[in-house]
Each structure stands twice: as C-alpha cells, then as structure tokens.
Design brief:
The protein has about 400 residues and is of the alpha+beta class. It is built from two helices and 31 strands.
C-alpha cells in the first residue's frame, strides 16, 4: 500500500505539472508570437509482481513520469495593427535579434521600432533586429543618415506635342530644379528657319533662356513632319547663381512632330527628373523583408533586408521567454531572406497572435483535473487501508 501511495503521488505531481503547462498557455493567449506547449507523459519503471520470487506474477508499474514539454510551432492568426513596423512572417521563419549581451535569439513576435539612433529594435527589451548584407552576414538595420532625402537637380526634360510647320515662331516653357531643389522657369523660343509654309520638311532653331540670360541652343529637323532622331536632344550646361552647374538635356525624340496646324503649337513639357529635398515620412518592409523608406518629396529608397531563420527539428529549439527561442544545435538552423527558398513572406502592419487554442486547452484542463482527483482518491484509499491494517494489529 505504501507503493500505491507513492504511485498516486507521482500522479499528483504529473497532473500538477500538466496543469501548470495549461496555465502558462492560457495566460499567454494574447501574447504576440507565443507558441503553446504540451507536457509529455510517460509511465515509470516496472518491477516483478510476484512477491514470492516466481516468474508468473507479471509486472507492476510505479506511476507517472514527465518527459518535458513539446512546443507547438503552428502559425498563429495574423492580425492587422496600426504600426507599419509591426511585422509578421506568413509561413516558415523567425526574426533574428541580438540582445545587449550580444546573444542571438529567434522570435515570431515582430513588435519593432527605430530607436533614437536610427537602429531597428524590439520594443520589449531594445534588442537589435538583425538584417543581412550582400555577403549574408548579420548587420544592424538602420535609418541613420537616411532621415532626409537630398534635392536632386534636373538632368533631363521630355517634351511632347506639335510645332506648327506653317508658323514662323513658337514658344514653350520648362521648369527645372537646381541642386538645392529650387525651381527655375526656362523659356524656349523656336524659329522656323525654313520659312512659313505647308511643307512637312522643316528646320527649327531653338534658343533656351533663363529670364534674359541665354543658357542653351540647338536645331530640330523634321522630315515628313517627323523629327530626325539625330537632332532629337538638345544638351546644355545650366549654372544658376549660387549652386553647382548641371548638364541638362531637353529630349524631343518621342512624340514631337511638325505638321501644319495653323499658328498654334501644343508642344509642352511632359516630364522631368530631379526632385526637391524631403523628410522621412514612412518606413515599411516589403514581402521580401527589404526596408523601404518614403520621403515627403515622393522619393523612395530601399535599405537593408531582414534576416530570418528556421530549424530542422524542434529538438534544436529552447524557449527562453519573451516569445523568444534559442538554438540548442546551431547546425540545425538556417539563416536566409524572406520570401526565398523555404522562408515565408513578410507582412507589414501585422502581428502574429498566440497559437493557443482555448477549446483544446479547456479539454486538457478537464483531463488533468480528473487525473488529479483520481490519483488523490487512490492515495486516500491506500491510507484508509493502512489505517485498517494498524487497527487490526492493535486488536
């Protein structure tokens, strides 16, 4: 009966551990990136059941043992958030972070932000979120030096439209940006040096001025109303006061014609390059995990790409808390880029919820409770039998 009490005690201890595991799972039902666990049970050792030393008594077990927990890495629900830097991996993979002690950890909880120095960190403990350089080495993901986008001077202006072949002169304007991002309106004066006629073979001289200052000139020739490709671009050096000079090309090579249309031209600037200075207004990651920075001037710049990791077997993983995991066997882990090979894609403004299934946990809770009650009843019964035995000896 003492053996029965011992066996019952192993049941109490085992089911208590099972209850603790369920308690941890349910307590973290709203923890981003949390992975639930299941306690593994096993029977203990056996002994020969024949008290007289024979071999026909069978075997008697000595109770319940636990073999640790098994982590469930099933993906949790992906939920939208209002923070562009909340990230989730849709598919296989984990984010890689380095803590203040220099230790590498892995997590599915992508609650990130840029710190005051411009480095992407985990909101939990400021661990640095790691990216990969071109050689596949870990690097910090940073916007340091990228919070502003410098102005870029105009280098090319494209025109479309028609120069009336029956006109003597025609005018147009173009707005260009200097190296400081300031806009300048340039005047274009076209003179039909073949004379006003209805012919579609014509030559036009072009004079470009900034106010009253000449800045460039060229010739445009047309055959059957179509521009000859050799004369389709006029290039000059533009040097407004106080800023660096810039070579500018006026491109008429596409969709510019010279047909009879009275004395009215519809030749106009269609597009230009260059932009003003801008400040950083948005930081996002695309499906490949590449940082994309958007500026107030409409420009976008790509930065570093996130590092993601995955393991071959759960035996190579150890949970350390904070929705993080460590590599027990580094050889069983792989590092790569999102949306490549086995790795899933990155979802911005999204968090992965806990994968705890409450209905399953409550079912397990009932089982643990009944198991505990049953083991407790066995101990109580064995104790009553011992009391009865002691009473018999006293008679």
């Amino acid at each position: 009966m003492l053996d029965s009490i011992y066996t019952g005690m192993t049941g109490l201890l085992g089911f208590s551990s099972g209850l603790r595991t369920i308690s941890n799972n349910t307590a973290n039902m709203n923890t981003p990136g949390f992975k639930g666990s299941t306690l593994q049970f096993a029977d203990l050792f056996y002994s020969d059941g024949n008290l007289n030393g024979g071999h026909d008594g069978g075997q008697i077990g000595f109770g319940l043992g636990t073999r640790g927990t098994s982590i469930n890495f099933k993906q949790g629900e992906l939920r939208n958030s209002n923070n562009d830097l909340d990230l989730a991996i849709d598919g296989l993979g984990m984010f890689v972070v380095r803590d203040s002690a220099g230790q590498i950890h892995h997590t599915r909880a992508g609650q990130f932000e840029f710190d005051s120095t411009g480095i992407l960190v985990d909101k939990l403990d400021r661990a640095k979120v790691l990216g990969l350089d071109g050689g596949g080495n870990f690097v910090d993901i940073s916007v340091a030096g990228l919070r502003t986008n410098s102005a870029q001077a105009t280098g090319s202006v494209k025109f479309t439209g028609n120069l009336s072949s029956t006109a003597t002169t025609q005018n147009a304007t173009a707005t260009v940006l200097d190296a400081a991002g300031a806009a300048h309106s340039l005047s274009l004066a076209f003179t039909n040096i073949t004379g006003s006629s209805s012919t579609t073979n014509s030559t036009w001289s072009l004079s470009v001025t900034d106010g009253s200052t000449p800045v460039g000139s060229g010739l445009l020739t047309f055959s059957n109303g179509n521009l000859n490709a050799a004369t389709g671009r006029v290039t000059f050096t533009y040097a407004p006061a106080g800023v660096a000079s810039k070579v500018v090309t006026f491109d008429f090579s596409s969709d510019v014609t010279s047909f009879a249309s009275g004395n009215v031209t519809n030749l106009a600037m269609a597009s230009r390059d260059g932009h003003t200075a801008g400040g950083l207004v948005k930081s996002t990651f695309d499906a490949d995990g590449v940082l994309t920075l958007t500026y107030s001037n409409g420009q976008t710049v790509q930065g570093a790409s996130l590092a993601v990791s995955h393991f071959d077997t759960i035996d190579a993983v150890r949970a350390i808390g904070g929705s993080r995991f460590d590599a027990i066997d580094p050889k069983a882990w792989h590092i790569g880029r999102a949306n490549k090979d086995i790795f899933g894609s990155i979802r911005g403004a999204t968090l992965e919820a806990s994968n705890v299934d409450l209905s399953s946990e409550f079912s397990e809770l009932v089982i643990m409770q009944r198991g505990y009650q049953s083991s407790s009843q066995v101990i109580s019964t064995a104790n009553e039998m011992l009391q009865e035995l002691f009473t018999m000896r006293g008679k």
